[in-house]
Specification:
This protein has 365 residues and is an alpha/beta fold. It is built from ten helices and twelve strands. The protein has a ten-stranded mixed beta sheet, with helices on one face. A two-stranded antiparallel ribbon has the order 11-12. Helix 2 packs parallel to helix 3. The longest helix is centred in the N-terminal third of the chain and has 19 residues.
Amino acid sequence: MKKANNSGLTPKTKTEHLKQLAKYREETLRPNPELRSLFLEITPFCNEHCLHCGSRCGDIDVSNMLTKEEIFDALKQVKKDFDISNMRLCVTGGEPLLRPEFFEIMEKAQSLGFGWGMTSNGTLIDEKTALRLKNAGLKTVSISVDGLKENHEWFRQSEGSYEKTIEGIKNLIKVGISHVQITTVVYHKNIGELDAMYEEFKKIGVRSWRVINIEPIGRAKENPELMLSKEEYIRLFDFIRENRFRDKMEVTYGCSHFLGTETEREVRKWYFLCNAGVYTASIMYNGDIGGCLDIERREELIQGNIRKDNLREVWENKFENFRNDYRKTGKCADCPEYEFCAADSFHTWNFDKMEPELCMKGILF
């Protein structure tokens, strides 16, 4: 079966684009990084206990959380030091809505001029909450749905949550949130439900479905039986290709991983580039400053703390390991694809073995 060409680009053109992107990364972006996405981990608490959680929510030390006033101060400082018109504030957790002062914080962000979006499990979004979210300035939201009812609730260890999540999505659409996206983590047990999920989500009226693979991070490393086989990875990407523009609901892959020339641009809008430390930074629930929130929280990867450090100074003077080739070692050192992937995603890098936990070379190409 011939695979869909969703990009309209030839392999030669893609290779030329990838070379241009690699040159831009080395000559422009790494020397002059631009903070476009600031993640704010507003709480580590969650009302679910997902088997794949990269942050291990519910199992970590929750002492020393930022206070409401400290978050206010941080947002004011960011507004002072950065052009926030070119920045997205991405609010996450845990489940963000479990933060008692959630709406106070987001209304403050709105008053300061931040455009903001959030990730949520959707279970707490009744009609009243959906309207409050819209009035507080919510522009984009990603809601996690990890299978049909049985598998979703098993995977997220949250009995009765499926209907609440679907109702939350419907409420967000009903009040007119501009971009409501479903995100699905595909793992060994739910990959057979992709076609059924497609039909279910299309009925709801969702216009964007982000389909991603389970990653070998966090709790998922303790559940290796959930990982996809080579054949299942191929099945996943074939599904995205075939359904990407089939109807009004776009199906897209996430930002992770270099997928090889054949698959790049066929399953998402742009080519792979790990944004951590060059376009993206995070403020963690305890004030620590890092790259992407999915990256292992090791001492050497924490760049500072918002309680004592100025984010602008940290952004301009730290993040060295995110802007050089220190990961060009071991399996990656002599790989011809390194020019394009630069050792792939930081969040799936094994910093003890200094090698990727997951690489699509040998799977997709």
